[in-house]
Each structure stands twice: as structure tokens, then as C-alpha cells.
Amino acid sequence: MGTTNLDTLSLGTGLQVGAGNVTILNIDKYTPALTPVSVAANTTAEQTFTVTGLQATDFVMVNKPTAQAGLGIVGVRASGANTLAITYVNATAAPIVPTAETYLVFTFSS
Description:
Elements: E1 15-17, E2 22-24, E3 26-30, E4 33-34, E5 43-50, E6 59-63, E7 71-80, E8 83-90, E9 101-102, E10 104-109
Antiparallel strand pairs: 1-2, 3-10, 4-9, 5-8, 6-10, 7-8
């Protein structure tokens, strides 16, 4: 199988997923510079960030560009208009501050 690069993909009335139960009308990409705060030891904590353009009904995927030992992302969501919520997990015995960096955020809306 080969790889195809698409500069523009027109889906007309949207992309239907499954048996037509879900239609994706928009896929958007954002690259916000985020500065998370410390996550306490052995816990999960949700932090919110402003990402202009997010809608409360968007399905969100997030990529943190670097790895940090003991730190993970266990959940993401659009918690409101222009608001990205990321739940971090700290699986260590000491607090961790997630690196301030530019994340990759994709949203899917129907």
C-alpha cells in the first residue's frame, strides 16, 4: 500500500463513519503554545487552556510533542467554547511540571 498526500480533500456533505451514524463535517488543526502547571504526585489533574476556535461539541485529540517520565495524558475534551481541557496523570512520588511547549490539537465536529 502506498501513501497519498492530500492538500485539500472535499467531502461534500461530510464523511460518514460506520453505518452512517456519524457524519464528520469539519476537521481542524490547532497548534497552541501551552504552559501547564505542576501535577501533584500519584494523581490525575485536569487543566484548562484557551484555544480560540474550539467548540464545546468538538471531539478532540491532543499530541504532547515530548515525553516526560512518569507523566501522561489520560483524557482531553473541549470543556466549553475556546476551552481545551487536558487531564494529566503523574505516576511518580514527586510533583511534575509538564513541559511548556506547542501541542498539536485536532478537532472533529459533526
